[in-house]
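Structure tokens
________________
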Amino acid sequence: MAELRRYITTEDLMVHNKPRDLWISIQGKVYDVSDWAKDHPGGELPLLSLAGQDVTDAFVAYHPGTAWQYLDKFFIGYHLKDYSVSEASKDYRKLVFEFSKMGLFDKKGHGACILLCFMAMLFVSGWIGHDSSHYQIMPTPGLNRFTQILAGNCVTGISIAWWKWNHNAHHIACNSLDFDPDLQHMPLFAVSSKFFNSLTSYFYERKMNFDSIARFLVSYQHLTFYPVMCFARINLFAQSLSLLLSKRRVPNRGQEILGLLVFWIWYPLLVSCLPNWGERLMFVIASFGVTGIQHVQFCLNHFSTSVYVGPPKGNDWFEKQTSGSLDIMCSSWMDWFHGGLQFQVEHHLFPRLPRCHLRKISPFVKELCKKHNLPYNIASFWKANALTLRTLRTAALQARDLTNPVPKNLVWEAVNTHG
């Protein structure tokens, strides 16, 4: 006798979207992850961002085939009555299946080994912290974790726990102005005039006030962009310390703190070896400036693409990831410079895919975008810089010309006095 199924509607599912009442649907089956969300390896935030929705595309993008076996213990007997799949999602899932069958997610190449050798010689991270947090670049989870702490905490002074918390939110809510932390840089930058409504950041859990100070800074953001990027690493240091010293649950907090202590021992010691304070200051400024190139690249991939306000949705995964990301056109011999970020569209669609395969799969992604009349955003490195500056300048001019301006401070009045 056929099993009698119990069904609920999408509207019924949407009601269960709170921390202690969190349901999701995967391929039409409904799962209650309320009690388990805090133990989710990717953190609680990705689940909360997509709570009360069908999350099949996000699940297949982020989880290996072995993860399916763990779903049954969360199944609560309900199936989604009005479950449907768009044509774009169907084709996207086919690609995931084909890439899995080809073993691309498991063939990691020799990139990690080569970069670790460079780290030993030059003591630089070479994007390896980013890679090791998206997929297992080492033979065992223990070695992979060691690589994360070494490349992130010890070498760069950035908590890998903070990075994963931040970066997972960015991937799930790509280019949502109020859910994606990678676009929330008020009061220094605003990529859209929608920020002028003082949006609430659901990541930082605070209101991003567009006051007179923010208006002044945003009005000149296209001029301050590169100077600020030269010192953006300071913000990452502060964010890392803030998380580790907070009451928020942080896995392996002791390892994280120990890794940062290693950085804050070797880096000041290195600086102290220079003969005078002038050279020490120049060295620190130069080191920040070089890492600023990496921060610029992060911005190029998303600042000039489509943005939206509101929570991410599980049923337009492919569309949102492609419209919110920008590829950088470059020759294969320049791949080392961009560290895989030049294939940002592909990376967002297949975050577990080792970077050595991103160039290989880009034609498939481009073809799928064309088939479904979706944008495949790509530009040269210089064009991407121009597009980013154009976006910042447009918002800057809009900040100056609002019909109902906020009260201006004295600095604003002095700079903008006419006559």
In short: The chain has a mean pLDDT of 87. The two ends are 87 Å apart (CA to CA). Residues 6-84 form a domain with the Flavocytochrome B2; Chain A, domain 1 fold (CATH 3.10.120.10). The CA atoms of residues 331 and 359 lie 10 Å apart.
